[in-house]
Structures are given as structure tokens and as C-alpha cells.
Q: What sequence folds into this?
């Protein structure tokens, strides 16, 4: 027991220990402070609001681009379909935001899961399309 006490006294009297411990504490508090500010800006509510704004912007841009396409053309029809899909996503985002405000967590989970599955399906379609393009070349 005396040996352990002797070693502890040696450690605490060391100048390097007296410098590094306060330095580590300062760095830890800075990281915790940055994490606290980031968590507020990266909340689910803020993400839903950001998604809603992006979807509104995308709908406006697509509706504006419809003017430049021939009616009944392929690009026109694809853009119309994209507008319809984006409006559905916007409705889901609005419902997610409303459920979040009401703290209806089951509904929030449902809309988050729906959005994740949609993103996964889009990624799979893009991957398959890229494979087809590369295979045909």
C-alpha cells in the first residue's frame, strides 16, 4: 500500500501531469460545448424544416421548367411525375413536422422509415441504371 501511495505522489507532483490534466479538461469542455450547439442545429425538427424548404424549391423549379418542354413529350411527362412525387414527399415532410410538434413518436418513426426506404429505393435505381449504362458501353 505504501508503494502505491508513493507512486501516486510521484505522479501528482510531476510537472507534465499538472499541465496535461487541465489541458485535457479544457479540450473536453470545448468538445462538449461544440456538441451541444451542433445537436440543436441537427435536430429532427430542423432537418424536417430543411427538407420541406428544399422540396418547395424543387417543385417551383420543376414547374418553371415545364414551360420549356413540349407537352406530351417524354421530358414533360417525367417532370410532371417528379412534381407529383415531390408533392407527396412534401406532404409526408409536413406530416412529420406536425407529428414531431405533437410529440407523436410512432407517427414520426413511420415517416422517417418511409423516407429512408424511399432514399434506399432511389439509390438502388440509380445503381441499376449505372450498371446498365456501363454494361451497354
A:
Amino acid at each position: 500500500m505504501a508503494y502505491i501511495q508513493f507512486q501516486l505522489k510521484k505522479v501528482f507532483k510531476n510537472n507534465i501531469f499538472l499541465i496535461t490534466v487541465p489541458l485535457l479538461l479544457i479540450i473536453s469542455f470545448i468538445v462538449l460545448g461544440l456538441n451541444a450547439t451542433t445537436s440543436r442545429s441537427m435536430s429532427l425538427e430542423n432537418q424536417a424544416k430543411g427538407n420541406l424548404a428544399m422540396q418547395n424549391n424543387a417543385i417551383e423549379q420543376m414547374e418553371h421548367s415545364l414551360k420549356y418542354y413540349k407537352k406530351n413529350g417524354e421530358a414533360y411527362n417525367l417532370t410532371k411525375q417528379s412534381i407529383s412525387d415531390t408533392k407527396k414527399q412534401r406532404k409526408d415532410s409536413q406530416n412529420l413536422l406536425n407529428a414531431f410538434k405533437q410529440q407523436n413518436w410512432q407517427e414520426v418513426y413511420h415517416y422517417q422509415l418511409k423516407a429512408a426506404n424511399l432514399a434506399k429505393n432511389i439509390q438502388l435505381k440509380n445503381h441499376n441504371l449505372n450498371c446498365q449504362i456501363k454494361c451497354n458501353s
About this structure: The helical segments are 2-13, 15-41, 44-65, 74-101, 105-136.
